[in-house]
């Protein structure tokens, strides 16, 4: 593996989740010095990395903790999740946008449901399903999709060097290689709507050094899925 990150520092915000841990692994494999931010109760989920990473135990919308964690970083990778109804995702995005060093590469994760320009075309039924599930989940105070939308809007409106990577449905399994991406959902190449998490994480890490992805919101799909192969 080429040590593309050697001598550089990366912060992974939301490091203890499934995607976060894959991102930490890819970053270490490429020689990055890694700091991970995760909730205090989730620190044990990073035990496998031992002393190879620095851990900042904090909620990801804790502005002081994020300021400390991103100091001196060349890249900040952030998992945006719609958990809770306390503006967790938008608070997380705001903290990263406000405190990351000027010029740092910022890469955020979210789902296909986020549309930057309204040009995405969703499979039939998806919107109705999301509206119903989103409303029920918000009532149950579990999920707030609107807040993830607000978080991404703040990123799109910022003058940082951002990329928002929009994931399809995810699955575990061996790597298929770097996912294929398109600018808009609805492109036939994305129709299979499946990506391996390990590959999503790789896309996030490699996006750091892909200048063509700055100010893009790529929608991704697994490289070996039928739709990607027939594109
Ligand atoms: N799941 C999918 O099929 C899917 C599809 C498309 C896009 N995506 C995107 O992919 C990314 C990763 O999603 P994932 O589903 O694979 O999950 P994941 O990587 O396991 O990440 C879940 C994250 O949410 C945090 N979290 C869980 N409960 C929380 C709570 N109550 N309060 C605050 N934080 C909490 C976790 O932190 P702890 O470790 O502290 O619990 C972890 O950082 C997200 O950006 C998501 O939008 C997912």
From TrEMBL:
Domain (NAD(P)-binding) ranges: 14-210
Top-level taxon of origin: Bacteria
InterPro entries referenced in this protein's UniProt entry, alphabetically: NAD(P)-bd_dom (IPR016040), NAD(P)-bd_dom_sf (IPR036291), Polyketide_Oxido-like (IPR051606)
Matches recorded under SUPFAM superfamilies: NAD(P)-binding Rossmann-fold domains
Pfam families documented for this protein: NAD_binding_10 (PF13460)
Protein name: NAD(P)H-binding protein
Species for this entry: Nocardiopsis suaedae
